Automatic annotation (TrEMBL), chains A, B:
Residues 100-119 are annotated as: Disordered. Signal peptide: none annotated. Its EC number is 4.2.1.42. Residues 18-88 form the SAF domain. PANTHER family: ALTRONATE/GALACTARATE DEHYDRATASE, GALACTARATE DEHYDRATASE (L-THREO-FORMING). Belongs to the UxaA family. This is Galactarate dehydratase. It comes from Edaphobacter acidisoli. It holds the Pfam family GD_AH_C. One of its GO terms (biological process) is D-galacturonate catabolic process.
Amino acid sequence: MNHPQPDRPRSLRMDPRDNVAIVVNAGGLREGAQLEGGLTLTEPVPEAHKFALNDLPQGAPIIRYGVTIGYATRAIQRGSWVHEGLITLPEAPALDSLPLATETPKPQPPLEGYTFQGYRNPDGTAGTKNILAISTTVQCVSSSVEYAIRRIKAELLPRYPNVDDVVAITHNYGCGVAINAPGAEIPIRTLGNLALNPNLGGEPLVVSLGCEKMQPSRMLPASKLPVLREESYVMRFQDEEYRGFGDIIAAIMQMAEKRLDRLNQRRRVTCPASDLVVGLQCGGSDAFSGATANPAVGFASDLLVRAGATVMFSEVTEVRDAIDLLTARAADESVARELVRQMHWYDAYLGRGDADRSANPTPGNKEGGLANIVEKSLGSIAKAGTSAITGVFGPGERVTKKGLIFAATPASDFICGTLQLAASMNMHIFTTGRGTPYGLAMAPVIKVASRTELAQRWPDLIDLDAGRIATGHATIEEIGWELFRMVLEVASGNQQTWADHWGLHNDFALFNPAPVT
Amino acid sequence: MNHPQPDRPRSLRMDPRDNVAIVVNAGGLREGAQLEGGLTLTEPVPEAHKFALNDLPQGAPIIRYGVTIGYATRAIQRGSWVHEGLITLPEAPALDSLPLATETPKPQPPLEGYTFQGYRNPDGTAGTKNILAISTTVQCVSSSVEYAIRRIKAELLPRYPNVDDVVAITHNYGCGVAINAPGAEIPIRTLGNLALNPNLGGEPLVVSLGCEKMQPSRMLPASKLPVLREESYVMRFQDEEYRGFGDIIAAIMQMAEKRLDRLNQRRRVTCPASDLVVGLQCGGSDAFSGATANPAVGFASDLLVRAGATVMFSEVTEVRDAIDLLTARAADESVARELVRQMHWYDAYLGRGDADRSANPTPGNKEGGLANIVEKSLGSIAKAGTSAITGVFGPGERVTKKGLIFAATPASDFICGTLQLAASMNMHIFTTGRGTPYGLAMAPVIKVASRTELAQRWPDLIDLDAGRIATGHATIEEIGWELFRMVLEVASGNQQTWADHWGLHNDFALFNPAPVT
Ligand SMILES: [Ca+2]
Ligand SMILES: [Ca+2]
Ligand SMILES: [Ca+2]
Ligand SMILES: [Ca+2]
Ligand SMILES: [Ca+2]
């Protein structure tokens, strides 16, 4: 590892074909700054923003990651700032003429012998935490279940030291919704599959009001797990045996205690890295996300895939504009076609609501140097590494394959995280450029910063500084390996993430494309 | 008040024109049961379900509340059970030929001299509670703000005994949403107006991440309140002055303490009843809701309107099928036309999502005896009493008129409650037949049971038993006056609701008709 001087003008170019690079230095660079290779900036360029490596005539393609991210709206001089206003937005790739599995990557050599200490579940999956969750079928019971959980944590949990946490799966679904409308299957299966997340030990407990539209048997049929056929797992507020709130809370606590007792008997055992189901996501991205954090995550993703794990990437709206690169990388044509089907579904969903493609990236993304959704997509896809895509799953579906998976979700951070948990995620990697205190109760979240400035400003929120790639203090490979090892340590309970340290655990956020009533 | 024998077969007919009545007795009535007026049941009829008062030929209208709720699918004998399967669903009233202000009720005599002890706000409104709320512009900061509030409650609130509570206005909006799509104005104005609710003392505090789509100035422009132009009301996580999570939390706590200090200096003063903004809602309805609780609330609603208050009813999907009765009752044609416009908007919203009208009522409603949405609508509208409708407001708009207002919202309980809070509700009346532990942090919720059995089974959740109307222990007028007096007592802080006693306060639930991205 070399230690370059921090003040030297530095830039990052992602691919030899690129005709732009980004400025690395905090605070940006002044007019006249001399970059590697003898290039001189003709005007000030903000940090993380692009400048031209050559003279670009009007209409010339702007190339980053070896891909055209748009066209020059006017002639751009070598060394000048290539800002959002100078780049046209290309059309999204048409979905009817995409390359299907035309460039499927060859499998990389397997990585043997990597393990973590996890909780083995009856269904063969493994947990990285040992959590009791209480599911709810309807919003009406949310605050009561939260009341019960406050009491469980105060009165019961101290007696069950091997149980990590008690979590309420609350939401605004279950009644007052068009439950038979197209799309309603998404929130329903999401809630059912959340209860089956590997970090919950196969011990679902469902609290129902009684008169709601989404009945417990619809959300989580007993056929889903052997234990559900043997033991009552549903508590209904409106059952006539409960005389008042005291009785209701006592009943929930009693059912919770049975499960706490069994969960408490579990111990961590050695599990192969192939038991990991790692969800990848980004939020609050900047131009460094796609240059430092996401490529490093991509390297770790390849390592995880080589170790036999499941790695999920998601966020339809952030991959849509580079979907041609993904369909080409599919393991086979049927996987590619399923990718296309998910893009079609989402195009139609956005079209029904008259949503505007240019709404993503956010103002913050743009201020951070991302010109448009194409550039953001390329940076986002960098998280997925270079493996073949072996499977595609719809929003809220449980992922049942190993390898690199596309789990279709919105990009909205907590909706994506909730859907990845339903997909059976037991470890989460989250990259951020602008910075966010993101965290989830059900799985550990490793937050990777794209810039050293952010990692240093938020030392008690950011778990890994990938900004060292930009400053030359580390390579993509080095950070990738560091992250891979951190995943195993966190999954084993040997290292705590900052989100878990502070208890920063957002509520679940459902994706419900159907109307409320 | 008379005290009839509990075991005598009893029934309720709502209007002299009705050809059905409902069974009142708990557990229903047996075949052969003899009812008042010499009618004999020809088969068992469940509690709250309808039976025929006359022989009804096939195709005959089934009349309840003096209104046709459907037609007999086959001949029905006098004294037999008129269940859901025997009633066709009539078409929803067409929106292009409704009576507009054709039967505007005359104003009833004013009720003078009724007051409550409330908190006077700078903008002229009055609070029934004295709450510090912390608004958020984006989901990313929710769990951090909740962390800050736990510390504020533990470390600061004990020193400010006149402040009732500290509440986080969290949500899943702000980023990852199509913020310029049609309908996006609804969640945005909802969040802005929530911060202006009269129970929050005009002291908004907004926590922002920094890079989110919905910037603080869009959610709550400083022009909304004089105080916002004088003092900083926005805290941004990503501001460079904050070094880590500790700094961020300290900054939120410091801004909170300034507001706690000012709120703590407030005292309750005598306010006229006309300062009340009472939101009406029902949830978990049964056939008794429309026969006991809702008519009693309707009577109280008329009293409140006579006392000069604002009374809001809502729940578009529950009034849609009886909208002709409401447009006729509008104070003038422009109010009636605005009602029609809101119905049109919602019809289109449901149509875009292919939602099925028969999805409401819920299975629980039907089991409780409500045959269809028409019958449910008539029972729901009973809450609105008999006054003229003086104003109509869209979802999340701030209500600025006195009298009986239709505030258009979905029927989904917490979405409706959240929108009514945004509309400036400072008191909430919630009727329930099947039973729900509904509660909100921002305004007191009086829960009215439609049945004595529920009120007795849940004595520590139900605030008022309107079931006494069915059993003959009280009249609609008596319960209506009791509720009116209870509203004044609760608004004055002299009586605590059960929801407040247990702290059953659901999270806010936004209505976002636009897509997520
Ligand atoms: Ca994002
Ligand atoms: Ca995201
Ligand atoms: Ca919550
Ligand atoms: Ca309802
Ligand atoms: Ca409702």
